[in-house]
Design a protein that fits this description.
The complex is a heterodimer of chains A (166) and B (456).
Chain A lengths: L1 H18 L24 H21 L3 H7 L3 H11 L3 H21 L5 H13 L2 H9 L1 H11 L7 H4 L2
Chain B lengths: L4 H17 L8 H7 L4 H29 L1 H21 L3 H30 L2 H29 L2 H6 L1 H22 L14 H28 L4 H8 L1 H12 L6 H20 L10 H23 L5 H48 L4 H18 L17 H39 L1 H11 L1
The chains are: A mainly alpha (166), B mainly alpha (456).
Chain lengths: 166, 456
């Protein structure tokens, strides 16, 4: 009788915990950066910049074979970047190539989503293909500055920029 | 006997409780020890493992020596060694010295505990009652050890755990000195020298397996609470006190069931069920650890007393067979710690990374101002660097909160979500270890079943 009571108590406890989600209480899985992440109808420059950064991170992470989140942590500080380089054996040249590729993918995604006109996408591609690593990281962190640069690039025509952005 | 029996019984029970508490007393202090002595979780685990390993190896030889030199002298000298080594533990400033001192402490403790079992029957007048006092004192000490250690660690320091044992051990030795003096004067042993019978293999094997599971339950739960969920040592001490409280309930249930095999089997099932419950916690909430702890507490009381009773029942001399049970229990603790520590340390590193990735995903996908995101990312990165691979306390990385009410609310949401991901990771990291421990508890049912067929 004691053994039966013990068995029932143990099974009831485990059953309740499993039914309450005990087997799936784990961190959320991160998504594959190589899979396209659709843009969600961004409103204004801030949201475009946000989605642009995410697309750029996805593209760079996909090229490096790491998660978008791992790359974002690596780019947060120079010390984090150094640890990332050591852990994954990725030098600055490889990182720069990947980030430029990521920025190009972000421009493609923005253009495809209708968030960026072809008129602006061309000069942006030209800009990111040439920039050094530190500036590329800065752009991926703050895409607003990239779009701001384009605004400056257009100079007096900058007022027209808003017409090309939703 | 030259001393009054009552103080001597109390002193012997105190000695047994004190020594066996030491097998678990540092559990809650381990995080502080590994921070203070700049070592790893695995390194700090050896503060626990070394003591239990020496207890396992020294218990039977110590019992033989106690019978040769006299149990009074063995107990008094053992307690003196235990006290001296405790002092060395308390003043040690590096891991190596601490571990060596713990080994010496265990050797002295083994002598005191096994000699106590030899002295108790003559003191209380009944072998059965002596066994009950000895087993209860040991179980009480082992169960209370973590809570006492946690309280001392937080209120004073981890060193105080050892320093406080010095006067307690010496106080316990005083009433026993009278027996030692009597032995020295007469040269006559107080106990009859009888032929040593074969140890109860199956009961001792089951004891080892169940002890491995129980040690894992205590050790892993404490680490989950302190390192995973960031409770203070005193907070964790309060939480794990549920286990000894439940053990007291279990000790009341035990006498109602005459069959030692049924009590042992029920206890092993409860311990395993509790451990499986801890493996499948549906949320990182302290309250959810209570039902599993109650099962483990009741189970350990039932199974340890039943198996000790079976291992000692009708066997003589008691000290030698008591030595075998001590040896089996502490060997089990060592196996549990050594087998499970690498599993959970590997898991916690992986789960920590997964949790941080999940939290980062939440931040990246949020609609918070990108400049705030960059700032947050940098502060979180600094925080992770400062925590050096451990599960971080993430809250301070979000301070100060933005002054804009909308941004503030959004950042608070991100902080909570990141913390939730870390909680999920920390909790899940312990699951495989708890499940393995549960399996060990269930496997103990095999020797428990065999013990009936072969021995009873």
């Amino acid at each position: 009788m004691l053994v039966g009571a013990a068995l029932v108590s143990a099974l009831v406890l485990v059953g309740i915990y499993l039914a309450a989600g005990g087997s799936s209480y784990t961190p959320e899985k991160t998504r594959d950066p190589c899979k396209h992440r659709p843009w969600t109808n961004p409103q204004g420059l801030g949201e475009i910049a946000n989605q642009f950064s995410i697309s750029a991170l996805d593209g760079a992470a996909c090229q490096l074979g790491v998660s978008r989140e791992t790359l974002a942590q690596a780019l947060a500080t120079p010390e984090a970047r150094e640890r990332f380089s050591e852990r994954y054996g990725i030098d600055d040249a490889k990182l720069a190539r990947a980030i430029r590729a990521g920025l190009l993918r972000a421009i493609d995604d923005a253009e495809e989503a209708g968030a960026l006109s072809s008129f602006l996408a061309g000069p942006l591609r030209g800009t990111v293909e040439e920039i050094p690593l530190d500036q590329a990281i800065e752009l991926i962190q703050n895409a607003r500055s990239l779009l701001g640069n384009v605004e400056s690039f257009f100079g007096p025509a900058g007022d027209l920029l808003e017409q090309f952005l939703p | 006997m030259s001393a009054a029996p009552r103080p001597r019984v109390a002193a012997l029970a105190l000695a047994v409780g004190l020594v066996l508490a030491d097998s678990s007393v540092v559990v809650l202090a381990l995080p502080d020890i590994y921070r203070d002595l700049d070592t790893s979780v695995v390194g700090a685990t050896w503060v626990l493992v070394s003591f239990n390993l020496v207890m396992a190896l020294a218990a039977v030889p110590a019992a033989l020596i106690a019978r040769r030199v006299g149990p009074g002298r063995a107990a008094a000298v053992g307690l003196a060694i235990f006290a001296g080594a405790g002092l060395a533990c308390g003043i040690s400033d590096n891991l190596s010295t601490l571990i060596v001192a713990r080994c010496v402490q265990a050797a002295g403790g083994a002598a005191a505990v096994t000699a106590a079992l030899e002295l108790l029957p003559a003191t209380v007048g009944s072998e059965r009652r002596a066994t009950a006092i000895w087993a209860t004192a040991g179980a009480t000490g082992a169960a209370l050890g973590p809570a006492v250690g946690g309280i001392l660690t937080e209120l004073v320091s981890w060193q105080s755990i050892f320093l406080i044992q010095v006067p307690v051990a010496l106080a316990a030795a005083v009433p026993i000195l009278a027996v030692a003096k009597h032995e020295a004067a007469t040269g006559i042993l107080q106990t009859e020298l009888r032929r040593t019978g074969r140890p109860h293999l199956w009961a001792n094997l089951a004891l080892a397996m169940v002890s491995a599971a129980i040690a894992a339950a205590l050790f892993l739960l404490v680490l989950l609470l302190i390192e995973g969920w960031r409770l203070t040592p005193i907070g964790a001490a309060v939480v794990v006190t549920v286990m000894p409280l439940a053990a007291i309930v279990g000790s009341r249930i035990g006498p109602l069931v005459p069959s030692a095999r049924a009590r042992a089997a029920a206890g092993a099932i409860l311990v395993s069920g509790g451990l499986a419950g801890l493996a499948f916690l549906p949320k990182a909430e302290v309250a959810l650890t209570l039902p599993p702890q109650i099962l483990v507490g009741i189970g350990l009381s039932l199974v340890l007393s039943a198996l000790t009773e079976t291992a000692l029942g009708g066997r003589a001399p008691q000290a030698i067979h008591g030595g075998w049970t001590i040896s089996a229990r502490h060997a089990g603790v060592v196996i549990g710690l050594l087998a499970l520590t690498p599993v959970f340390t590997a898991d916690i590193a992986q789960q920590r990374d997964d949790a941080i990735d999940a939290g980062t995903a939440v931040i990246l996908d949020s609609k918070v101002n990108p400049l705030i995101k960059i700032d947050l990312a940098q502060r979180i990165a600094d925080r992770l660097e400062g925590e050096d691979g451990k599960v971080p306390t993430i809250g301070p990385a979000f301070e100060p909160l933005p002054s804009d009410p909308t941004d503030r609310e959004a950042v608070e949401g991100l902080r909570d979500e990141l913390q939730e991901q870390l909680n999920r990771g920390a909790t899940h990291a312990f699951s495989p270890s708890f499940l393995l421990a549960a399996l060990l508890g269930l496997l103990a049912l095999i020797p428990i079943a065999l013990s009936r067929r072969v021995e009873l």
